[in-house]
């Protein structure tokens, strides 16, 4: 388990864990469309520390989702290389080392919360996963103990996202990729889930890569915020969020918090 300090890399057992969970070396992605080529990403070079919490922000179309998809092995880079846990994204995915949470919870409506969380254990190669926590324990971890038998339509939007997070964690992934997971939620629910997510991050030690449009959310959650520029998507700036952990409601009223939000706002305006 990784302690909640701002020097996370030093807490990792180096005999078993790579220093970097993700290494991006000149990653470029070009899509060919009917209207010509779209340069979604151009030469992204950056490393993500194992056990860290990194947010990606930037204007619409700057390639945030594309970058997550490269790491998740859903898209191959046109140029450059992505390394995940010292391996190819393909092998990391095959070994079930990557969990993904989308903006929409994408739960199966005919399955209960528990059955949804169990789903990844029922599909894919057998015997590849020995989960640290059972689906029931994961539902407890995300604050849904006692709601195992609820169907998605019986749960609020925030609860459905909690189920989606539990489902993403069921294979015990080393990396959790989250693409605007709380974007559709009201502000109070979102703040509460941000606090929950940090608690889950603390207890699982997973590396989190989090896409958001919210500056405040990025600052509240992250150890570092990667700001991307659009057309083509490229790295603009990396900002260290030196607020320390644990974070809670008090964090949002710290002077440093507002200063970091202003700094990021200015960077986004020039992106
Ligand atoms: N499958 C695809 N085919 C063609 N173009 C694509 C494809 N996927 C993404 N793009 C283009 O690549 C660029 C980056 O898209 P991406 O969705 O990664 O951006 P984003 O930063 O996540 O955007 P948003 O903040 O609006 O969600 C955009 O110009 C988009 O239109």
Automatic annotation (TrEMBL):
<keyword id="KW-0067">ATP-binding</keyword>
<keyword id="KW-0547">Nucleotide-binding</keyword>
<dbReference type="InterPro" id="IPR017871">
    <property type="entry name" value="ABC_transporter-like_CS"/>
</dbReference>
<dbReference type="InterPro" id="IPR027417">
    <property type="entry name" value="P-loop_NTPase"/>
</dbReference>
<dbReference type="InterPro" id="IPR003593">
    <property type="entry name" value="AAA+_ATPase"/>
</dbReference>
<dbReference type="InterPro" id="IPR003439">
    <property type="entry name" value="ABC_transporter-like_ATP-bd"/>
</dbReference>
<protein>
    <submittedName>
        <fullName>NitT/TauT family transport system ATP-binding protein</fullName>
    </submittedName>
</protein>
<dbReference type="Pfam" id="PF00005">
    <property type="entry name" value="ABC_tran"/>
</dbReference>
<dbReference type="InterPro" id="IPR050166">
    <property type="entry name" value="ABC_transporter_ATP-bind"/>
</dbReference>
<dbReference type="GO" id="GO:0005524">
    <property type="term" value="F:ATP binding"/>
</dbReference>
<dbReference type="GO" id="GO:0016887">
    <property type="term" value="F:ATP hydrolysis activity"/>
</dbReference>
<keyword id="KW-0813">Transport</keyword>
<feature type="domain" description="ABC transporter">
    <location>
        <begin position="22"/>
        <end position="255"/>
    </location>
</feature>
């Amino acid at each position: 388990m990784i302690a909640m300090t701002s020097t996370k890399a030093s807490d990792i057992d180096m005999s078993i864990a790579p220093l970097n969970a993700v290494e991006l070396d000149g990653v470029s992605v070009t899509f060919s469309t009917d209207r010509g080529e779209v340069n979604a990403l151009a030469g992204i070079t950056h490393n993500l520390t194992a056990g860290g919490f990194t947010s990606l922000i930037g204007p619409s179309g700057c390639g945030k989702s594309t970058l997550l998809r490269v790491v998740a092995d859903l898209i191959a880079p046109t140029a450059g290389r992505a390394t995940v846990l010292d391996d190819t994204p393909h092998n990391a995915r095959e070994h079930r080392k990557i969990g993904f949470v989308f903006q929409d919870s994408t739960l199966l409506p005919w399955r209960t919360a528990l059955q949804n969380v169990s789903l990844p254990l029922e599909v894919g190669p057998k015997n590849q996963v020995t989960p640290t926590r059972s689906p029931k324990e994961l539902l407890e971890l995300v604050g849904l103990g006692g709601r195992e038998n609820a169907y998605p339509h019986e749960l609020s939007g925030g609860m459905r996202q909690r189920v989606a997070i539990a489902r993403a964690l069921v294979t015990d992934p080393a990396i959790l990729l989250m693409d605007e997971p709380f974007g559709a939620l009201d502000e109070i629910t979102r703040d509460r889930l941000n606090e929950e997510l940090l608690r889950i991050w603390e207890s699982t030690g997973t590396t989190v890569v989090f896409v958001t449009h919210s500056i405040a959310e990025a600052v509240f959650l992250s150890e570092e915020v990667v700001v991307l520029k659009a057309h083509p998507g490229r790295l603009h700036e990396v900002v260290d969020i030196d607020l320390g952990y644990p974070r809670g409601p008090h964090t949002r009223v710290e002077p440093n918090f507002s200063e970091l939000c202003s700094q990021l706002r200015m960077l986004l305006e020039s992106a």
